[in-house]
Structure formats: C-alpha cells, structure tokens
C-alpha cells in the first residue's frame, strides 16, 4: 500500500519553494538598484575613455545576467563595476 506525504511534508515543501521564489525576486530588485547607481555615477563622473567603456560593458553584462535570471552573477559584476567607480 502506498503512503501519501503528510500535510507537514507538503507544507514544508511549499514553504521552501516560496522562500526560494522571494529570494530570487529580492536579488532581482537589488540588480536594478545597483545598475541605477552605476548609471548615476557614470553620468556625473569624469573617467578615462577606456575605464568608462569597461564600466559600461560591465553594466550591460550585469543587466543581461539579471534579466536572464542569473541575479547573483549579475550582482557580482555590478559589485566589480561599483568598486571601479568607488561607490557603494
């Protein structure tokens, strides 16, 4: 005879799924915040042309990663770009 998963087991699985979903949404929001910070810094900062191109490239890469669902990788790239710009 087959036993069905208990209600507690189903509830735990649902809670885990929801927690993972909300964590992904929070990271996606942080991507947008970081990209906006980079844009603001680029608008008001004097940079050498090669540095500006590199930061713009990193910004585009981060936006693409975040849009594709690779939020953590996108945040890693924005962190690197923000470090180059000396912003938080």
Description of the molecule:
The chain has 88 residues and is mostly helical. The protein contains 3 helices and no strands. The chain has helices spanning 7-44, 49-67, 71-85. Helix 1 (7-44) runs parallel beside helix 3 and helix 2 (49-67) packs antiparallel against helix 3. The longest helix is centred in the N-terminal third of the chain and has 38 residues, at 7-44. The chain is elongated, with a radius of gyration of 19 Å.
Give keywords.
mainly alpha, elongated, 0% strand, 88 residues, 3 helices
Q: What's the overall average pLDDT, rounded? A: 82
- Tell me the β content: under 5%
Helix content: over 70%
Q: Would you list the SSEs in sequence order as H and E? A: HHH
Largest sheet: none
Alpha-beta content class:
mainly alpha
The DSSP helix count reads 3
Radius of gyration: 19 Å
Cα shape? elongated
Distance between the termini: 59 Å
Strands, count? 0
The low-pLDDT segments are 18-26
